[in-house]
Design a protein that fits this description.
single chain, 113 residues, four-stranded antiparallel β-sheet, DUF34/NIF3_sf, N-reg_PII/ATP_PRibTrfase_C, hydrolase
């Protein structure tokens, strides 16, 4: 019996103007593909919200000014990554496509029941 690949959930936050570019990049890296007979691809869930940050003295912020608290509209994107290699490639693609100096993202290892 073949061992199933591990599943991970990639979650990231991005300004609305960069959502399409980030999704295109992670999907090209293999994120958002569900295993199984349906052949679903480019699967994700998005939620609008407000992010907050204060850039430090050595920051070069895409939005806001050093030392000033900033509230910005952002979109949370969640997607499935099947396999550790796909997950790593999706994160690297996200970092290249994302406009922020330090993109906020999380990777969660998922259980399969």
């Amino acid at each position: 019996m073949a061992t199933a690949l591990q599943r991970f959930k990639l979650v990231f936050y991005v300004p609305p103007s960069a959502v399409a570019a980030c999704k295109t990049a992670i999907f090209a890296a293999g994120a958002g593909r569900y295993p199984g007979p349906g052949g679903y691809t480019e699967v994700c869930f998005t939620t609008k919200g407000v992010g907050q940050f204060r850039p430090g003295n050595s920051a070069n912020p895409h939005i806001g000014k050093v030392g000033e608290l900033e509230d910005v509209e952002e979109v949370r994107v969640e997607t499935l990554c099947v396999g550790r290699d796909v997950t790593k490639e999706a994160v690297e693609a996200l970092k290249k496509a994302h406009p922020y100096e330090e993109p906020a993202y999380e990777v969660f290892k998922m259980e399969d029941f």
